[in-house]
Give the backbone structure.
Amino acid sequence: MERYLYYGSLGPQERQYQIPNFTGLALHPAHDREMAHNAVEALPFADGTIAKVQSQDVFEHLPFDKLPFVLDEIYRVLKPGGVLRLSVPDYRSPVLKRRSVYDHRGRVTGDLMMGATPWFDAATGDARTRFSDDGDAHVWFPRYELITHLILKSEIRKSAIRFYQGFLDDQTFLGEPIPDDEMFVQRALPHDRRSGGMPVSIVVDFTKA
C-alpha cells in the first residue's frame, strides 16, 4: 500500500481518515493513524518513498521563514510522480479580509478570528498585533505572491505546478475544479461559498518530475 502523509491532526471527521493510506503528522498524536512530528523539522522518511502529501490549512500557522525547508523536505520524500496538494487561506478573499486588521500600508497584520489581538505601542506610536501562543494563530497571511515566493526559495519549484483556486491580484481569481481524489479540500469551491462563489483558499498541486 502506498503511503500518504497528512499534515496536522487526522481526526475521524476528515475524509482522509477513511483512506487507510493516510498518516497524520501531529504534534500530539491522538490515535494510531497519527505519528508525532513537528512540521518544521525533517521528515523521518527516506527519499522518494511517499506517493501523496496533503497540507490543508496548516502552513499559515508556521513561521514563514521555516517554510522553504518544509517544502524541501516534502519534495525530497515524494516519489517521482508524487503529488503535494497545498491549501492555505487566501487573504484576498472577502470573507477573510473582513475579519482582518491592517497596518498603515494596507497589509494584513492579524486575523481576529485566528489568534490575533491588536494593541497600541505607545513607545513607537504604532499599531501592532499579538498572536496567541497555543499554535492556533495564523502568523502570516497567504496571498498568491507569497506562495510564489516560497516556491522559488524551495526545491519544490522543480515540480510541475498547477494552481486551481485563489486570487491572482485584487480582482482576478482562479476557481477551477479540484480533482475529486483522496486529497479532498474542505475550504474550497464548490464546498465553501462564504465568499459568494469566489475562492476562500489558495489551492495548488505540485507533481514531482
About this structure: Residues 67-77 form the longest helix (11 residues). The chain has two domains: 4-90+138-207, 95-131. The chain has three helices and twelve strands.
